[in-house]
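SEVERITY: medium
COMPONENT: batch folding queue
REPORTER: lab tech (J.R.)

DESCRIPTION
The queue accepted two submissions in a row. Attaching both inputs and their returned structure tokens so the on-call engineer can compare them side by side.

ATTACHMENT 1
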Amino acid sequence: MSGCEARDAKKLVRSPSGLRMVPEHRSARSPFGLDEPPWVPDKECPRCMQCDTKFDFITRKHHCRRCGKCFCDKCCSKKVPLPRMCFVDPVRQCAECALVSQKETEFYDRQLKVLMNGATFFVTLGTSDKSELMVCRLSNNQRYLVLDGDSHYEIEIIQISTVQILTEGFTPGGGNTRAIGMILQYKVPGSEELMQMKFTASEDFSCNRKLSASWLAAMHKVSEGGRMYRKLQK
């Protein structure tokens, strides 16, 4: 077990919003996770915050698990998976939040799984002219990019500043391109120095090239998604 996965144990907790499977140690939380929002107090929302319907004995109020606002059943009836908050089952969300959560489903169900399965690349560190064949994958807690070969590296995802995907096959008139590698820039904790790694897909077998291209595409989407999530959390 690598050092970054030594604290991956999880526990089942019950909150007002539902059952959640969360890391035992806060330091092991996924960088793509979200905290549960505080609920708008019942006394502060006499009407639905979407359609303005007045709450009474018949028209009950419900809280969206993603934004914490109060809605009537009509405006907050959808139950949608919310993996970013570690919910075990789909939870009640307002229409706007449900749409966002549904769009994230592909990100969690596909891209992160591809990255955790890993792929093989020739990795070049900094300005070195030597490369090393390494298996690259996302750690189970989604916090680190783990590289294993004769050497071993663990790069914290939140320390990655840029991801540049390298392609080939582009023509001036347009056409298909294929991801063949990437350049990763990141900071080492405790230092402001910017480090760089170059990843080049192995050309040994057709299946390896396809797997590497899928992994690179997922890495690109994760980096774009990570920037979007950081903006949303500000």
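ATTACHMENT 2
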Amino acid sequence: KSFLNHTAYLSCYFPNSQKTDIKDLRIFWQKGDVVVHEVYYGQEKHDNLSPKYINRTKMDMDKWTLQLLNAGIVDEGQYTCIIQHRDKGSPKVIHTSECVLHVIANYSQPEIAWLHTGELKSNKYLNLSCSSSGGYPEPEQMTWLISHENTTRRLVHHMDISQDAVTKLYNVTSKLNITVPTNTLTNISCLLYLGEQLGSLVSVPLGI
């Protein structure tokens, strides 16, 4: 995993138990059939690289790890590391491994907005929206939390999702329509659930 516009670290998982000298190895990193990085018998070689990776990659030979600078959402996917050994003149593959890159962009803190004007009257409807923007990957759910006294209700409404055609980042919005609470302080919050590994973001509560 890498954050958007940060450096991604892709490991070759090469134990090098034979302590082979780097000058006897050719190392390729590929994404599909596109060459991302090449080390040719100890020297970095740029002839075969795809233009979009030039000046964006470097190899840490001690850790057998490729650094991919300024990771973008288009860089997501599976990368293959192939190591060949110079063997009696013709190179022989001695190691291949695969690594999948996922890119993460932080969503903004969810924000609740009023969708109607005028004063609140009891038994009338309250219209709110909750929005969060600029994140990746697509979130799983938006939940409304309505708390008064010692009880909290959870409401899951439809979440509108849009994706920017250029940046590929997502914006999400959910709407809430409930009767105006009477005679008791009610706190309304909105929770954006991003998935098991990324957790949740919660809005500042709105007190009514």
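NOTES FROM REPORTER
Residues 2-104 form a domain with the Immunoglobulin-like fold (CATH 2.60.40.10).
No errors were logged for either attachment.
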